[in-house]
Amino acid sequence: MASAGVELLVGITTEPGFSPILTLGSGGILVELINDVISLPVPVTPRQAQRMVEQLRSWPLLQGHRGGARADVPALFELIVKVSDFATAQGDKLRALDLNPVIVHPIGNGITIADVVIEPSQ
After folding, report:
1. Where residue 85 sits, what CATH number does that domain have?
2. 21 pLDDT above the threshold of 70
3. What is the helix (H) or strand (E) element at residue 113, kind and residue range?
4. What is the number of structural domains in the chain?
């Protein structure tokens, strides 16, 4: 079992004829409770990844809201860019990718991807 942290989701969806879309949002049990999702077409740069994270309604949780530990957001930025690069490299071979939850641990402790679903194109 992964240690505590902030749960997010990172996903890719593709439609024929369109650029893949990377989605970032609150994950785990929050995904169905609050509308906290941001999407961008790939490729996503490190600066875009940072802006995506900072625009989340759950951003204060990552910053240590109410005395909590600050989350390892540099590791999250890196994951977002790597997922974007993966989707770009796969091209039309990838239909969808869902990482949920992505647990962002306190600073210096990285992330844990608790569940992954990959759907190749038909």
Report:
1. 3.30.470.20
2. yes
3. strand 111-113
4. 1
